[in-house]
Write a structure and sequence with these properties.
Blueprint (H helix, E strand, L loop, with lengths): L1 E2 H4 L5 E5 L5 E2 L1 E3 L9 E4 L12 H6 L2 E6 L11 E5 L2 H12 L8 E6 L4 H14 L4 E4 L3 E4 L2 E4 L7 H13 L4 E5 L2 H5 L10 E4 L13 H13 L6 E5 L5 H5 L5 E6 L6 E9 L2 E6 L2 E5 L4 H16 L4 H8 L10 E4 L5 E5 L4 H14 L6 E5 L9 H12 L2 E4 L9 H9 L10 E3 L3 H11 L5 E5 L6 E4 L2 E4 L2 H10 L4
Helix pairs in contact: 3-5, 4-9, 9-10, 11-12, 12-13, 14-15
Length: 487
């Protein structure tokens, strides 16, 4: 229980109607969670407006309402607080309600189009193995010390986020590593959160179903760095075209990493093969089970963050060399007849190109690359032809199939992917609507030594078809198929 006057501290208040010296039992922006003595925050969302549910919140026992527009009828027993931005206010209120847990942790936020999950997970594992109690908030899962919980969003809503951080404080965690999505930044889910370090991986096309322009997308990413305090660090990819933009006019100290520029933390790829990387960082060589230049950047993020947190270089590299990638990030298995299948979350044009270019660079002259992929429904349609073109450019054969079609017709999505494939490449393409059958066909035509990339879903254990969420796991299906193959 907290007093209303204490949990609204720091929000931009325009008007107050009622008493702020009242007890609040919980905070919610969803009327289904409102109970007696709740504070309800009415948020104008992308699909619904919480202001339309103020009456329901009042009937459910809310003692206070935070909103951008006061209702026409005000009830005497309820306190109404008008603010300029309800979403931003919710973040600050949630932080206050849970005693500002981010102030009690070393909190590291990672943003960018690709690499967020890998960097956050590697940092969590690195610090856990170095003897720290750590927390992880990622697309794949949430971890509090040694306990793992399922994740529903890359970055949770403001109330859930502060609840998780508070639990991490209670469990004795000292360091927490979290992904910060552009949606979360735009929707102010991390308002009121204090980051010690923010890291930028890269920018490429993604979420154009949500962001009206690429500039809006970039601007949302930059919000994380704009929010940093003077004593924080911004870890920036100097090789990325948007790296300098992230660091422009921020209060925090900018620290740069890269493979090509003069930077604070410089890396160099010594060797890259299917079993892993050999990378030189700060003049010291390390090996890693991760592959590809894109993962060399991820390793640099982890190293840079750990160094700015005060860890010894040799200790970082020694422990880091033993870590594996997160589930669904370049996870590979080999069949009895020596076909390699790689399961990867690559679902953007840039991510797909990175992994295919890496495979092309690693294969021998007689190895074929077979790619199985699709694109999600009700999402950015503009990336579909781009991914079609990229897949045909680097693959010997492509199986275009369903991803998470959601409410769209899978055939329509596939045809939009095919528009990006150049005419001379069409002979490479096989369309198989059913994802299980597409994986099966790819495995059956692959010969010894060939590489099958199954892209787009990675760690996901489901497919969303219409409104139904059904169990489906790319790795699980591939293992079943491989078990039937003879040497």
């Amino acid at each position: 229980m907290k007093l209303l006057k204490d949990i609204i501290y720091g929000i931009r208040i325009e008007e107050v109607k009622g008493n702020t010296n009242v007890a609040v039992e919980n905070v919610s922006f969803d009327t289904r969670e409102v109970q007696n003595l709740s504070l309800f925050v009415a948020i104008k969302g992308t699909n619904t407006d919480g202001h339309n549910f103020i009456n329901k919140a009042e009937e459910s026992g809310a003692c206070a309402i935070v909103c951008q527009e006061l209702p026409k009828i005000l009830k005497d027993e309820i306190t109404y607080i008008k603010v300029s931005n309800s979403a931003e206010s919710l973040g600050i209120i949630a932080s206050n309600f849970y005693d500002n847990p981010s102030d009690k942790l070393k909190l590291i936020g990672i943003t960018g189009t690709n690499g967020k999950t890998t960097c956050a997970t590697l940092l969590y594992d690195l610090y856990r193995l170095m003897g720290f109690k750590t927390g992880l908030i990622s697309t794949v899962n949430i971890k509090i010390s040694h306990k793992t919980y399922p994740s529903t969003h890359t970055t949770p809503n403001a109330v859930k986020l502060n609840e998780l951080l508070s639990e991490m404080v209670d469990q004795g965690c000292t360091h927490v590593f979290m992904e910060v999505s552009s949606h979360a930044l735009d929707q102010k889910r991390v308002a009121g959160i204090s980051f010690d370090i923010a890291a930028f991986t890269n920018i490429s096309r993604d979420h154009m179903d949500y962001h009206p322009t690429i500039d809006h997308y970039i601007g949302c990413k930059k919000m994380l760095f704009n929010s940093l305090k003077k004593d924080a660090f911004a870890i920036i990819n100097r090789d990325d075209p948007y790296g300098i933009e992230m660091a422009r006019e921020i209060k925090a100290k900018s620290i740069y990493y890269g493979l090509r520029e003069e930077v604070d933390f410089l890396g160099k790829v010594i060797e890259n093969n299917i079993s892993g990387l050999s990378v030189e960082i700060d003049g010291m060589e390390m090996t890693s089970r991760l592959i590809g230049e894109f993962n060399a950047y991820n390793l640099l993020v982890v190293y840079s963050v750990a160094r700015k947190l005060g860890e010894e270089a040799l200790t970082i590299l020694t422990v880091l060399s033993n870590l594996k990638a997160p589930d669904g990030r370049f996870e590979y298995i080999i069949s009895p007849n020596k076909v390699t299948a790689i399961i990867d979350y690559a679902h953007t044009p840039d991510a797909l190109e990175n992994i295919l270019k890496t495979l092309v660079g690693l294969r021998s002259s007689n190895q074929k690359i077979l790619t199985v992929f699709g694109c999600g429904g009700d999402r950015d349609k503009g990336k579909r032809p781009l991914m079609g073109d990229i897949s045909s450019l680097y693959s010997d054969h492509i199986f275009i199939t369903s991803d998470n079609p959601r409410s769209e017709d899978p055939s329509t999505i596939i045809e939009e992917i095919r528009t990006g494939i150049r005419n001379e490449k069409n002979k490479k393409v096989t369309v198989v609507l059913d994802r299980r059958q597409a994986i099966d066909q790819a495995c059956k035509i692959a010969k010894s030594g060939d590489i099958i990339l199954i892209a787009g879903k990675g760690h996901e254990k489901y497919q969303i078809i219409g409104s139904e969420k059904i169990h489906f796991d790319d790795l699980e299906e591939t293992i079943k198929i491989f078990k039937k193959i003879k040497k």
